[in-house]
Design brief:
By secondary structure, this protein is α/β, with parallel strands linked by helices. It folds into two domains: 184 residues, 3-Layer(aba) Sandwich (Rossmann fold); 100 residues, Methionyl-tRNA Fmet Formyltransferase, Chain A, domain 2. 28% of the residues lie in helices and 26% in strands. The strands form three sheets. A seven-stranded mixed sheet has the order 5-2-1-6-7-8-9. Strands 10, 11, 12, 13, 14 and 15 form a six-stranded antiparallel sheet that branches. A two-stranded antiparallel sheet has the order 3-4. The chain is elongated, with a radius of gyration of 23 Å. The termini are far apart.
Length: 314
């Protein structure tokens, strides 16, 4: 099929590679303009641009996709279908109406759950045990188009957003190929989304701070839901510390309530981690990162910072 591909971050890479490997005719790859990134603010190309360069595909990086000149370019490319995977710009109705098979989006959730910009983060943060990918025909709404295919993925209680992200990126690529085959063969019938939906907004700074009055389970999910980006943080002795990994306590003897302790208080240290009190239960912190330092084990942090039992994370 003659395709235009639109995508920007690493999540889109398996889909672009799969389309190329399957022999689809990729007449144009649209991605966001190069932007400053990292501490040095070095101008950096998107992951999709770098892959498109390797594959020697035509690349377009418009600031405003819906500008008349860019719409004209897409019309001249004459795609039978436009594929959108985490592109980062809104497609106007004029663009949506160009391809005969429509514009197909790969979304990282089981729609209509977790519409929006951060579906993987919020699924993990909320402790979901299942998520997946949905291919849909795009309309002018936010992830509201008719569904084409879905594929489920089980989230383990220890999985991080990074791990789920990578799995869904591959699952999305597989589902996309099946979707295009179904559209060409006329075997897929678009389905309206159910009316009840949930939303996964962009993460804000306040979403990253841990509140030790939350339950151990809630904190554990927040930690893994913000790993590897942007990272959950707390404060120790006035210094910001990011918490990267934690472990739920299964030993009933450890779960017994403690008297005279506060949420955030460090109760014990072992080679495995730091035992911390929460608003409901205890949580073992296993990996963290003081500001300006590399990630380290909780035991190294305990020894290096001369942490005392009874000190508090706030």
């Amino acid at each position: 099929m003659r395709l235009v591909f639109m995508g920007t971050p690493a999540f889109a890479l398996p889909s672009l590679q799969a389309l190329y490997d399957a022999g689809h005719e990729l007449v144009g790859v649209f991605t966001q303009p190069d932007r400053p990134a990292g501490r040095g603010k070095k101008i950096t190309a998107s992951p999709v641009k770098l892959l498109a360069e390797q594959l020697k595909l035509p690349i377009f990086q418009p600031d405003r996709l819906k500008a008349p000149a860019n719409v004209k370019i897409i019309k001249e490319l004459a795609p039978e279908c436009i594929i959108v995977v985490a592109y980062g710009q809104i497609l106007s109705k004029e663009i949506l109406d160009i391809p005969r098979y429509g514009c197909v989006n790969v979304h990282a959730s089981l729609l209509p759950a977790y519409r929006g910009a951060a579906p993987i983060h919020w699924a993990v943060i909320n402790g979901e045990t299942k998520t997946g990918v949905t291919t849909m025909l795009m309309d002018e709404g936010l992830d509201t188009g008719d569904m084409l295919l879905t594929a489920e993925y089980a989230i383990s209680s220890t999985a991080t957003t990074g791990e789920v992200h990578d799995a869904l990126a591959e699952l999305g690529a597989q589902t996309l190929l099946k979707t295009l085959n179904g559209l060409e063969q006329g075997t897929i019938k678009p389905k309206k989304q159910p009316q009840e939906s949930t939303y996964a907004p962009l993460l804000k700074r306040e979403d990253e701070r841990l509140d030790w009055s939350w339950s151990a389970w809630t904190i554990h999910n927040r930690i893994r839901g913000l790993n590897p980006w942007p990272g959950a943080f707390t404060t120790f002795r006035g210094e910001q510390v990011k918490i990267w990994r934690s472990k739920m306590i299964e030993d009933e003897s450890v779960l017994n309530s403690s008297t005279g302790v506060r949420p955030g208080q460090i109760l014990a240290s072992s080679p495995n981690g730091l035992l911390v009190m929460t608003g409901d239960g205890k949580l073992e912190i296993t990996e963290l990162q003081p500001a300006g330092k590399k990630r380290m084990s909780a035991s190294d942090f305990f020894n290096g910072r001369r942490v005392k039992i009874g000190d508090c994370l706030v």
